Amino acid sequence: MEKNRRHKKRILPVLIILIVLIWTCIIILNGRNLFKHCQSMFMEFLVDAGMSNVNVVNAVKADNEASFQWKIIFEACPFMTYLVENEDNIGIKNISGAKSLASAYPGYRSKSYVWSGAGADMAKANILFENSDIQIAELEEEEDEYAKMLAENEKAKGSYEITEEDSGIEAVEVGDTYISEGETSSTEDAEAVFSPQIKSNLTIINKLKKSQSRSYLLSNFYITDSSTSIDNSIFNVSKLLSKDVTLEKSNEPQILIFHTHGGSESFIDSRRGKKADTIVGVGGRLAYILRKKYGYNVIHDTTQYDKIGGKIDRNKAYNNAIKGISETLEKYPSIQVVIDLHRDGVGNNVHRLTEIDGKKTAQVMFFNGLSRNSSGNIDYLYNPNLQANLAFSLQMKLKCMENYPDFAKPIYLKNYRYNMHLRERFLLIELGNENNTVEEAKNAMAPLAKVLDEVLKGK
Q1: Which of 73, 90, 301, 419 makes an SS bond possible with 258, Cβ 3.0 to 4.6 Å?
Q2: Average pLDDT along the chain
Q3: H or E segment and range at residue 97
């Protein structure tokens, strides 16, 4: 007992001295500075121990608003941080379970002896879910779904007139038959030529070509929104029809498909959270057909440009999109055709529907921004490619009329620029509306691809 008392008496002065020293440090460094200093030391310890991502730690160290405890938890595992930051972009059914598992293992900088099998698997998953790989996985999923659809059609319909095995050429289904590159269906052409509606369309087109009338052009091929006004000088019929928009095929990327409103445009029967059922999935179908049937090198950008800060903001979507699209065009200057594919919104029960090859098909509407309001040109939205944009959409509209009775609605003219200044061959397409089904929208991609190929070939 006596020894214990003497021991306590010795400890007491030491504790007092430590308290005085700590208090002095607090006074000298200021309490907050001391806390930040301790926090920094701890973070540096994590880095030195190989338990965290240096860049992320440094960023978190600078965030004074974050909880220190949460910093410790998240920074102990970079993959957990990755999951949290990319939760909306990663298709994991049980994201909370993944977080729990990830939190049990150290970061990829750790020494090898602390890894378990599960930890190694999580690290591989971390690499797999980088943004570029997400897009590749989504495109592969879209192509798998398309292949399944073809197989189901084949089973239901029995046989095709031309098969891949018979021709020895890769083929893609169009309507009820397989048609290989360079081939056309004589039955389809015959029906098109003798269709009363097609005849009517051809009469209208021929009258335009003979008359070269601006008023006839505007009244029969366009709808002008009240937000804009017509500058007669840019609607020269001869120039619009004679503009060369043909394109020679190349092994380099030539066509870019993207969606300014990819996060907010779906269809009446779209499954919630399924990107394949949105306008982005429809764009995947178009890209697939253009690649596989027509041999174009196509990039499909699946970015949801109207999803900003985790929320839909359609007002800022065009400003957000121009950054990403410009980067892609700078990286691939060989891209000469840009398609901004939308699903139109009408806010009523109108169903934009036609029938092509026996299939219910959503109608398309080409759209042009004139950089002009009711008072005149909008100077800060100058578009050097305006005439070329108009020529491209008009030639697409005419080719639709030649092939299909009522596939394409009149071209819609509105006031702003809509990023169409980025390329001469820029199409903004409004596909169907919110009352169309996913199948109807995807059925429209085969005729749209055919028309685009014919225009680019100058047929």
Answers
A1: 301
A2: 74
A3: helix 95-103
Helix (H, G, I), strand (E, B) or coil at 260: coil
CB 263 within 8 A of CB 277: no
Contacts 24+ apart (CB under 8 A), 316-321: 317/260, 317/261, 318/260, 318/416, 318/418, 318/419, 321/258, 321/260, 321/419
- How remote is the C-alpha of 426 from its chain's centroid? 16
Q: Which positions ≥6 away from 344 have C-beta within 8 Å?
A: 352, 365, 430, 431, 432, 433, 434
Residue 298's closest CA among 356, 361, 262, 341? 341
Instruction: Please name each of the domains of the chain with its CATH number.
Output: 2-129 (no CATH), 195-457 (3.40.630.40)
pLDDT at 142: 59
d(CA 433, CA 252): 33
Dump the DSSP string for 70-91: HHHHHHT-HHHHHHHHTGGG--
Based on DSSP, count helices (H) and strands (E) in the chain, helices before strands: 18, 15
Exposed e or buried b for every residue in 58-92, given b needs 16+ CB within 10 A? eebbeeeeeeeeebeebbbbbbbbbbeeeeeeeee
Three-state secondary-structure class, residue 105: coil
Tokens 């299909």 sit at which residue?
404
Residue pair 411/365 in contact by the 8 Å Cβ criterion: yes
Based on the number of CB atoms within 10 Å of its own CB, is 186 exposed (0-12), middle (13-18) or buried (19 or more)? Answer: exposed
Exposed/middle/buried for 452, CB within 10 Å: 0-12, 13-18, 19+? buried
Cα 95 to Cα 102: distance, rounded to the nearest angstrom: 10
307, 263 contact by CB (below 8 A): yes
Q: Which helix (H) or strand (E) holds 360?
A: strand 359-362
In the 8-state DSSP scheme, what is residue 271?
P
Q: What is the DSSP letter of 348?
A: S
**Separation of alpha carbons 408 and 436, rounded Å:** 15
Query: Which pTM value belongs to this model?
Result: 0.61
Q: If we measure between CA atoms, which residue out of 438, 436, 419, 439 comes closest to residue 427?
A: 419
pLDDT digits (tens, 9 = 90+) for 408-445: 999 999 999 999 999 999 999 999 999 999 999 999 99
Instruction: List, for the chain, all residue ranges whose pLDDT scores fall below the cut of 70.
Output: 1-16, 19-194
Q: Are 348 and 267 in contact (CB under 8 A)?
A: no
In angstroms, the CA 456 to CA 132 distance is 29
Residues 406 and 398 sit within 8 Å (Cβ to Cβ):
no
Query: What distance, in Å, lies between the first and last C-alpha atoms of the chain?
Result: 108
The reported pLDDT for the residue numbered 260 is 94
Find residue 354's DSSP bridge partners: 361
3-state secondary structure of 355: strand
Tokens 């700590």 -> residue: 22
How many whole angstroms from its chain centre is CA 50?
Answer: 37
